[in-house]
Amino acid sequence: MAELVSMDFEAMWRALLPVGRASTGGYRRSPFASAERECLDWFLEAAVARDLRIESDGNGNVVAWWEPVGAAGPAVVTGSHLDSVTEGGAYDGPLGVVSALAAIDVLRERDVRPGRPIGVSVFAEEEGSRFGLACLGSRLATGVLAPEKAAALTDRQGVRLDEAMAAAGVTGALGRSAWLDRVGTFVELHVEQGRDLVHRDRSVAVASEIWPHGRYRFDFTGEANHAGATRMEDRHDPMLAYAATALAAGEQARASGQRATFGRIEAVPNGTNAVPSRVTAWLDARAESDDVLADLVSDIEDAGRTRSQLDGTALTLTPESVSPSVAFDASLARRLARALGDAPIIPTQAGHDAGILSGAGIPTAMLFVRNPTGVSHAPGEYAEMADCLAGVTALADVLEELAS
Which residues bind allantoate (predicted)? Predict the structure, then answer.
């Protein structure tokens, strides 16, 4: 059995690993673009080779169904996503998809006859790397995002979401997905984004919750001017206000044990010898509770406004997406932890499609596979093959438990 799992998983992983990999070692699997579409084609071929029935929706999501004779009732669905952040790692998303297919292979080898249908899902634009809204496919599928709002989203080149989807061959209407009505339980396997399991010396854990998190756009406006001819005391430089705000964000998050990151910035006119007229920066903030998150963002905004007033500049804050805290089904988490030999139950600070489905009322759980580096969203993201195989076995055990 272990040898079969290894053969199936490793063969699939080798096939998918080169797709979208840049010379830097990072991955560029942008949603609805060539590398991500190649990954999806790989998934469809792998699913058809296993005689799974393919179902897609107008949001770019795909589900491959295993529906043995006699399987009925609410389905058990697993899976993840295939897109990546720019210069991302190999494991975030694809590990959950490959492991799901391998888990079905394991169940068939065990001669398991599931009493419920089992689905393997691939959600679109989970990372929000192209259109700025994380978990886009699951938000549309659950109906929490209005189709007209989604359609009008644009990437950095000004391409609308609906245009990108049409160019990628995605057909059908945006909006709530009918296939989701069949889902009784959802389980997502994911590489751990941190080192909790390293410290516990465990290969696999079950998730307890997702911290609330949001993306906020800070627009600092000032006055464009010459970098050499303008005296420092005569400037209205929004870059200084931004810099002070970024420093304040790091200090406040560090002091309170929360997370605050300015990871993207745009300056206008973006000239080396010019004082900018505008600086736009995006804050990613995460905290242990909704109230703590709101206080953290408010404190960062206050710091920005205080500095802006000193510099004669202005600040406008726009929340672009805010996801509240998610507490996964506690009884389901305990049940799965027991089934996995008292696996640890741990929180995560990262957002996932599982959180969107949980928020929509679907009983949901997550499994984490140990990441020895603790690195995520970067080329250093990693999982040992032995831990990956332990994750496949754990997922198979969970699916057998839930679909019996």
Answer: 215, 273, 286
**Rounded to whole angstroms, how far apart are CA atoms 140 and 57?**
10
pLDDT tens per residue, range 114-140:
999 999 999 999 999 999 889 999 999
pLDDT of residue 404: 87
Supply the pTM of this predicted model: 0.85
Burial level of 33, CB count in 10 A (0-12/13-18/19+)? middle
Binding site, annotated residues for Zn(2+)? 81, 92, 127, 190, 377
Instruction: Say if strands 278-286 and 62-66 run parallel, antiparallel, or are unpaired.
Output: unpaired
Q: What is the largest CA-CA distance in the chain?
A: 80
- Burial class of residue 108, CB neighbours in 10 A (0-12, 13-18, 19+): middle
Nearest by Cα to 202 from 192, 211, 216, 187: 192
Q: What is the pLDDT of residues 219-237, one digit of tens each?
A: 999 999 999 999 999 999 9
CA distance 14 to 166: 30
Task: State how far the Cα of 147 lies from the Cα of 140, in Å rounded to an integer.
Answer: 7
Q: Per CATH, is 213-323 categorized as 1.10.1520.10?
A: no
Q: Work out the average pLDDT over 175-187.
A: 96
Instruction: Give the number of other Cβ atoms within 10 Å of residue 139's Cβ.
Output: 24
Sequence-ordered list of residues with C-beta below 8 angstroms from that of 173, at least 6 positions apart, any chain: 58, 147
Binding-site residue numbers for allantoate are: 215, 273, 286
| Sole residue written with tokens 């068939």 | 108
**pLDDT exceeding 70 applies to what percent of the chain?**
98
Domain boundaries, given as residue ranges, for the chain: 2-211+325-403, 213-323
Residues annotated within the binding site are 81, 92, 127, 190, 215, 273, 286, 377
